[in-house]
Each structure stands twice: as C-alpha cells, then as structure tokens.
Amino acid sequence: MMRPVAKGLISIIRAFSNPNVAGILRLQTQWNSPSAFQNIRPLSMSLWPFSAQPRDFSLPNASWSPEMRRVYDHYIALCEVETIGGEKKTGPWRKLPSYNRTLKYAKGGTYLSKMIQSKARLFTRSIKEHGAAFEYVIFVNKQEKRCVCVFQAGRLLEGPPGHVHGGAIATMIDTVMGGLAACLSGPIMTANLNISYRSPITLGSVVLIHSALDHVEGRKTFLTCRVTSTDETKLHTEATALFVSINVGHLFGT
Ligand SMILES: CCCCC/C=C\C/C=C\C/C=C\C/C=C\CCCC(=O)SCCNC(=O)CCNC(=O)[C@H](O)C(C)(C)COP(=O)(O)OP(=O)(O)OC[C@H]1O[C@@H](n2cnc3c(N)ncnc32)[C@H](O)[C@@H]1OP(=O)(O)O
Description:
Helices cover 30% and strands 27% of the residues.
C-alpha cells in the first residue's frame, strides 16, 4: 500500500505533467534557447495523467465566424516561415494549446482534491457547446515578448443588451496577460489588474487582445494590454497588470 505522502508527491508530479502548467514552466526555463515553446506538446502528450487524449480547445470549429477564421489563419501563417531554399521553419509566433483542466491536485483537503481531479474545469473552457461562451486562441511572439489573442464572444457572455459583460472581458484579459506572464516568468499569480473600458464590444464579434511585457522587477512581472477591433482601428479596453512569481507550494498550501 502506498503511503499518503508518496502518493501526494506522485500526484503533484503528475499535475505538472499537465500541458497547461508543465509546458509553460518548461517554456520559461528555455526562454533564451531557440527551441523555447517547442516542448508544450511532446511533454504533455507523453505524461498526460488522464486516460483520454486532451482536447485542444484553441482549434477552429464550426462556430467560428469567417473573421475569426481569417485572423486565426493569418497568425497560423506567421508560426511557420519559408527559408530562401524553400524549406519550412519555425516562425516567431507560436499558438498556445488550450486544455480545460489545470492542476490535478491543489490545497483544500482530500474531498476538494478528489473534486478537483474529477470535476474541475478551467473557467474559460468549461462550456462544451462550441461558440456559446469564450472562443479564443492565443499566439505568443517570444522574440518580442508579446502575444495576441483572437477572441470571439458567445451569446452566454452578455452583459449590457447585445454586448459583452465587463467581467467576461476582464476574464479574457486576465487569461491572456496571465498566459504571457507565465510564459515569460514561470509560475505566477495575478496580484493587480487595472481595466479601463473604452467602448463596448458587440456580442458575437471578434476582437484582438494584445498584451506585452512592460518590465520585470524581481518577482514582479508588469504587463500592458489593449483590446481592439480586428483591424485595430477601434480601442475597446485597456489594462495593466502585475503578476507575482510564486513558489508552486503556494497553491498546495505548503
Ligand atoms: C503552479 C503555478 C501555476 C501558474 C500558472 C501557469 C500557467 C497557467 C497557464 C495556463 C492556464 C490557463 C489560463 C490561466 C488563466 C488565468 C491566469 C490568471 C492567473 C490568476 O487569475 S490568479 C487568481 C487571482 N489571484 C490571486 O488569487 C492572488 C492572490 N494573492 C496572493 O496569492 C498573493 O498576494 C501573491 C502571490 C500575489 C503575492 O503574495 P506573496 O506573499 O508571494 O508576495 P508579497 O505579498 O511579498 O508581494 C511580492 C511583491 O509584490 C507586491 N505586491 C503584491 N501584491 C500586490 C498588489 N496587489 N499590488 C501591488 N503590489 C503588490 C508586494 O508589494 C511585493 O513587492 P516588493 O517585493 O517590491 O516589496
């Protein structure tokens, strides 16, 4: 019979084989190497702790509008460049995969751990119906330390009639900025997020969420963010945020 401590350690190791976390952690440690970002998929697939193959939610589906697909195709094309000799090689942009489970175990005792293991889902990926809520894909540019998210807001995100709820916009901003901060700095948590809503976003429309590194000060990573129309002529939202690097034990109550 395995002792609880050993079992817990194995669980934590398995948790970090989750692509959402392990991939990002490896990204951070390899940031300066040319192969940064290349380990997301191979690592996650080989050590995935659940029986089924994880679904990457950031792939095109039938709910995507032609505009969503057009912008997606534009950034996908930037992920691969052709050399003078006609060979394909990795470009400056990378699409981040997106799964609906994060850590398998977190603090909260046995019951919460079991509940998290079986039932917890990432908030932005918790609704199965395609197009009903958050449809998004994040592309990261490691050289420029910035990212762009293509976001199509579904009908369940309504706030003001016909427009997107401010909390849903904040959720996406936190997700995009948090994803970039984690890519750059490893395990982080949002400490501060300031948002200015400049113009409403129509429900069902597609917008771009641009985020960039401002500066790093010890454990503190400061980022900026702008939400714009896809042609970038209209500004919808602006944000700044502070992410603080954490010891992962922070999430396990150790
Ligand atoms: C296992 C790690 C997982 C990491 C995630 C990685 C990858 C995930 C990737 C994909 C997953 C997909 C999507 C993820 C979606 C969204 C990501 C968003 C993340 C979140 O949505 S996360 C939830 C909301 N978030 C919280 O639930 C945090 C609650 N909070 C705390 O847990 C602590 O508060 C903490 C840890 C923040 C700091 O605590 P601490 O004890 O470690 O550090 P301390 O307090 O000493 O602060 C150190 C220095 O930051 C300054 N500082 C701190 N707070 C400040 C503030 N508010 N304003 C201005 N400055 C502040 C201090 O002034 C000091 O500055 P100085 O060093 O200069 O004195």
